[in-house]
Design goal:
This protein has 215 residues and is mainly alpha-helical. It has helices at residues 2-25, 32-57, 61-81, 90-116, 121-144, 150-176, 182-214. The chain has one domain (2-98, 140-214). It is built from seven helices and no strands. It starts with a helix and ends with a helix. The mean pLDDT is 84.
Length: 215
């Protein structure tokens, strides 16, 4: 059973990582972008679903924390760009955000205990908890102001999906890379990916503004 779960976890993560470049580079309309986006969500869903029993089997709070963080990022990113409907209501958005805040508290407690015990992996949990809670509060704030515009929703969608990819790459490094200081290696995807999200978001905002002016 463990080997089967591990296979599903790796397969899901691999599918997601292969799909994200296509989703980023394809024109933001129906077709390749939507198809690759759906493949990405499916891959991340499989990776997260298999990560939960794996974290229990291996007694890994880190894996559980990354799974919770990734699940929130994908769910929030998916919700922001879906057409209006029951599954994309503000109630769902608030539910995702509150769940992330609850998990963030648990990640802070566990991460703090790990750091106190000399386990630097706790630093990564603390960073993810900080990022996740910040974005959850942003979601709640945006939802409290009513309907968000298409540009804002697109930027939120992009940031959440790329954030989940960062978490996936981090998990891969934790398992496969043994360098010192370990915590810096594990945070490298966040240190590199966060500025990339800012650049992609600014580029997307410019493209959408230019498209509106040419209409």
């Amino acid at each position: 059973m463990y080997q089967a779960l591990l296979f599903l976890h790796i397969a899901g993560g691999t599918l997601a990582l292969l799909a994200i470049p296509t989703a980023l580079l394809a024109p933001k309309r129906r077709g390749l972008h939507v198809a690759s986006g759906r493949a990405y969500v499916a891959g991340m869903g499989l990776a997260v679903a298999s990560a939960v029993p794996l974290s229990i089997a291996t007694q890994s709070p880190f894996l559980a924390g990354v799974a919770a963080f990734s699940a929130y990022m994908v769910a929030s990113g998916w919700r922001w760009m879906r057409r209006p409907g029951v599954a994309t209501s503000a109630a769902w958005g608030r539910g995702f955000a509150v769940a992330m805040l609850v998990f963030a508290v648990a990640m802070i407690v566990v991460g703090g205990m790990q750091v106190a015990a000399g386990d630097t992996l706790g630093i990564v949990l603390l960073v993810f908890a900080g990022i996740g809670s910040t974005l959850a509060i942003q979601d709640l704030s945006t939802l409290s102001r009513g309907a968000a515009g298409k540009t804002q929703r697109s930027i939120l969608h992009l940031g959440r999906m790329l954030g989940a990819s960062i978490a996936t790459v981090t998990a891969v490094l934790v398992v496969n890379v043994d360098l010192e200081p370990a915590w810096l290696v594990w945070l490298a995807p966040t240190l590199v990916g966060t500025p990339m999200i800012a650049v992609w978001s600014a580029r997307l905002a410019r493209e959408m503004a230019n498209a509106r002016r040419t209409v």
